[in-house]
Amino acid sequence: MIFIERLKQLREAKNLTQLRLAMELNVSQETISGYEIGKAVPPAEMLVKLADTLDTSVDYILGRTDIKSTLRASELSEQEAEILTILRKQPEDKRIFVYDLIKGLEK
Q: What is residue 43's three-state secondary structure?
């Protein structure tokens, strides 16, 4: 199950033990262990807390996307949000062109 693998991978990537993660989420270590071995399924509220604590999205943890990083709309400036809105309206070839242009700025 993707959830089990990703939860453990994300926890370990942040150098957190099950106990430390449990303490941050105000649950028992047994609860985290149960999630990681597939013995228990976290409720929606806990999935959100896990995602926030592990700096990812619920969709990533559940295997609905392979994009780990999160970007919340509240973190975007008005200009950044406008750029994304315009970009999403463009055909694929123009989006690829803009992506390549931006990646070129990193070099």
A: coil
Q: Which residue, among 53, 64, 62, 46, has the nearest Cα to 1 in the 3D structure? A: 62
pLDDT of residue 81: 85
SS3 content of the chain, % helix, strand, coil (to 5): 65, 0, 35
Whether 18 and 50 have beta carbons less than 8 Å apart is answered as no
Neighbouring CB atoms inside 10 A of 42's CB total 20
Question: In this model, does residue 72 exceed pLDDT 80?
Answer: no
The pair of three-digit structure tokens given for residue 1, joined into one six-digit string: 């199950």
For residue 58, give every residue at least 6 positions away whose Cβ sits within 8 Å of its Cβ, in sequence order, or none. 47, 48, 50, 51
Query: How far is 97 from 94, CA to CA, in rounded Å?
Result: 5
pLDDT digits (tens, 9 = 90+) for 6-40: 999 999 999 999 999 999 999 999 999 999 999 99
